[in-house]
Amino acid sequence: MTSQNHDNVAGSGRFVHQALEELESYFLDPSYNLDHYISCDGESQGIQFPAQTYEQRCPVDSSIASGSYSFYSSPSAVSFSSNGSSSTQPDCVSDTNNSIYDNCLSVSRACSLDRENDLENKLGELRPLRPMLGPDSRVVGAGSRFSVEPQLSKEAMEIIQRKNLKEMLVACAKSMADNDLFTSEVFMSKLRLMVSVCGEPLQRLGAYMLEGLVARLASSGSSIYKALRCKEPTSPELLSYMHLLYEICPYFKFGYLSANGAIAEAMKNEARIHIIDFQIAQGSQWITLIQALAARPGGPPQIRITGVDDPVSAYARGGGLEIVGQRLSRLANSCGVPFEFHGVAISGCDLESEHLKIQPGEALVVNFAMMLHHMPDESVSIENHRDRLLRMVKSLSPKVVTLVEQESNTNTAPFVLRFIETLEYYLAIFESIDVALSRENKERINVEQHCLARDIVNVLACEGPERVERHELLEKWRRRFAMAGFAPFPLSSFVNSTIKNLLKNYSGNYRLVEGDGCLYLGWMNRNLVASCAWI
Questions:
Q1: Prediction pTM value
Q2: Which of 119, 136, 120 is nearest to 183 (CA)?
Q3: Cβ–Cβ < 8 Å for 135, 179
Q4: Fewest beta carbons less than 10 Å away: which of 61, 141, 235, 531?
């Protein structure tokens, strides 16, 4: 089949509009979920994913609908239950007693054999050191015996008296950056009584940010971040948490819909399409696109998908990438679409062009959905895999490259600015969740703990290569793509109108902003997710 066999230019325009309508209908259909699809003939296929098919990363990657996200894509967070079990529902009554401070230390001790002495011992050793105490410490004693008695500064005492949670969180971060351990410890002891995983959005977020501060002070951020893998919920539990987040917030549907719209437009006359997804997770993004392309006038194109994934994702998926390939192959077969799947179980840092098996004559699509921010850049290592990956992709001459990323600046910002940025960004996320689920809803608690908290801890507690959550604003991504030789591919008005229809199903506080051919999805006055395309 060749592109000349397909519709003319006018027909192509109609197809793109029709394809976007198809994509929108599947995203808005309440019967559509991550584990069950409707075939092209409308008959329910009932293809169930294995129970353990969820991607570990939630916010941060292309896995929320599929399965960091990680927004995500994100790695799951430890559950702060009294017995330390991640599968136990949190107790809203006793969450301040079973504090994050204590649980964070216990998790670190249990999961890291080479862990330093616990935080209390470390603070006890450091308190006698004058430089650590802050400007208002004083020496007291009688005769020849003297001791150092730490004193809070007047500013710190005023902050404590005001009892403003946001102000105290930021002040604690600043004292930590100043290496004032005594003031940091006092602030943390006060914060323990102010945060709650069952409270208002700021209280809930504060609980996880306090965890990050404790981990950073104990120099155990990387240990806790890694150790939390041993506290993963079971795959069915993680499946339900991630699916719930996907349903109650439009962030991931926005990303998938905008990227698929750009791809449908760029591929409207192509007979052979090769999609390279650099964070395929379970491949759910491509279900709606395959169904839309199956209805293309003149017949469907031949589709080949290369799914790139880190081998650690196999845990959540319950197996290797062959599970994704089998799932998409069954769908394509039901739709009458010629289909081939190629799995590449390798980290993006190790990926080379020969792993992708590019074939002559195929139109190449590259998809970066919530993935590139995990690649270390020039601030981490001289290899600079973030820019190396973009240059490699450009050398493959793709027809279109799609980018979906969190609109946040945490990559190279100093610690205090990174802390404030994380606070503001995730507060908007927690507020949007608060509108969708009641504060007493234990599933909401699990969603926040297992889909968001671990990323927050990593941003605050880890440094160097251990800090893998390194978000950048779209303006910085623009510069990186331009340096790699790419040019913008503006998203069409069809995509814009389709997403506006999507947002009608959610709170009126969500907003869609268009600028320079890119789209931003925000909550009130804060942009949260950015989507764009490049050629």
A1: 0.77
A2: 136
A3: no
A4: 141
Angstrom distance (rounded) from CA 137 to CA 153:
9
Which pLDDT does position 34 carry in this prediction? 41
* Contact yes or no for 526/435 (Cβ under 8 A): no
Measuring CA to CA, which residue among 100, 290, 113, 325 is closest to residue 203? 100
Mean pLDDT of all residues in 330-347: 93
Question: Which CA distances in Å does 135 have to 158, 161, 322?
Answer: 16, 19, 60
Residue owning tokens 């980018």: 403
For 175, the token pair is 């004292």
Which of helix, strand or coil describes residue 44?
strand
CA–CA separation, 27 and 38 (whole Å):
12
**Rounded mean pLDDT of the chain?**
77
Nearest residue to 71 (alpha-carbon basis) of 280, 260, 249: 249
Q: What is the pLDDT of residue 513?
A: 94
- DSSP 8-state code for residue 42: S
Structure tokens given for 343:
């799995």
Which of 259, 239, 235 has its CA nearest to residue 247?
Answer: 239
Amino acid 164 reads N
Joined together, the tokens standing for residue 132 give: 């650590």
Cβ neighbours for 193, distance < 8 A, ≥ 6 positions apart:
96
The percentage of residues in the chain with a pLDDT greater than 90, rounded to a whole number, is 53
